[in-house]
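$ ./design --mode recover --in tokens.txt
reading tokens...
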């Protein structure tokens, strides 16, 4: 089950891009940047070739979630890196980074390190992870490589709690899971689908025979990942922290 009828955890009103401190870029600034951009290569950015829309939950509060937009670059067949944005608009804010590794790479990590990582199997099979605008049959060619991968996502800008700037330490994020705290609420899912012109339930059906591997999910997935579920702590104290964040900083809207 990809969605839940449970309402998402309430947070302060999210901040908006237009609320970021400072004046809008002037015509002079835009002209200068337009000129300099033509003189530079931006080679690292040219390697980003995928746009992924999905959700993420806060490790210390799994019921609190955000919709995310990942731009993905492949370093090797086994390692990818993502810049994570709060939207797919021109004024989108960079809210974090995620690193994705193949199962073979993940299994070589120290056990303690694995606890910081999450699996992608559930969100991909349930149709939550999508490439907007790309036909499903084309998506599945890439998803076959990604369905058994693991990711580590650090959120640097908690816009959903009202922050106007990236404040405090980074927050560890989790992937959606088949758990009361890990499911995406139906209303949120329907809003996403309407905006992208897709049907998550339809994608779930299309992926059933191609991507689902129930035996792997039951016995093959490394239980050191998704530690908040496996440890039975539900996020609270799973990484040695209590409420707030894992570094002991205070949390809440600032500015």
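writing sequence...
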């Amino acid at each position: 089950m990809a969605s839940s009828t449970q309402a998402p955890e309430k947070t302060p009103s999210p901040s908006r891009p237009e609320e970021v401190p400072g004046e809008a870029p002037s015509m002079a600034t835009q002209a200068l940047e337009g000129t300099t951009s033509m003189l530079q290569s931006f080679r690292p950015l040219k390697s980003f070739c995928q746009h992924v829309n999905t959700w993420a939950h806060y490790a210390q509060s799994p019921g609190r979630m955000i919709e995310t937009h990942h731009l993905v670059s492949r370093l090797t067949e086994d390692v990818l890196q993502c810049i994570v944005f709060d939207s797919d608009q021109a004024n989108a804010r960079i809210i974090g980074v995620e690193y994705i590794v193949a199962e073979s790479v993940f299994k070589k990590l120290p056990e303690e390190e694995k606890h910081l990582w999450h699996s992608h199997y559930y969100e991909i099979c349930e149709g939550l992870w999508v490439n907007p605008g790309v036909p499903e049959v084309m998506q599945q060619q890439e998803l076959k490589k990604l369905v058994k991968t693991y990711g580590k996502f650090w959120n640097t800008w908690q816009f959903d709690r009202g922050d106007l700037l990236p404040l405090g330490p980074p927050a560890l994020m989790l992937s959606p899971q088949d758990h009361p705290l890990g499911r995406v609420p139906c209303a949120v899912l329907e809003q996403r689908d309407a905006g992208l012109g897709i049907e998550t339930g339809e994608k779930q059906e299309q992926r059933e025979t191609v991507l689902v591997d129930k035996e792997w999910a039951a016995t093959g997935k490394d239980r050191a990942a998704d530690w908040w579920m496996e440890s039975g702590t539900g996020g609270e104290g799973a990484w040695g922290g209590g409420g707030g964040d894992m570094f002991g900083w205070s949390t809440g809207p600032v500015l």
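exit 0
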